[in-house]
Amino acid sequence: MMHLICIKEFSIVEELASTVREYGCKIAIMENILKLKPEIIKIDGSLIKDIDTSVESKMIVKSIISMSKELKAKTVAEYVHSEEVFKTVKNLGVDFLQGLYLRKLQRFIN
Q1: Which structural domain, as residue segments, surrounds residue 41?
Q2: pTM for the predicted model, two decimal places
């Protein structure tokens, strides 16, 4: 059985990150990803929503997908809201998709 743990109040994490940065600290997430060995890496909607028009978003998502494959983790893209975004993330090789566009497709198919 798989259990997912989600941080619901991410603003607390953001506040903590901001505070430690004021003291000159740096935040590293890669070390924790390696320790956790996640089976699924979720790609935030902030990177997906404009991926069809943003070169920077596409570059970052490509890197996340490549890293995930190396770690043998699946990827989930959230905020798939249009056909253009759908096609872009599918072409990049994202494993699973979430978003309003998929609901529209499901209504069309059913």
Answers
A1: 37-109
A2: 0.71
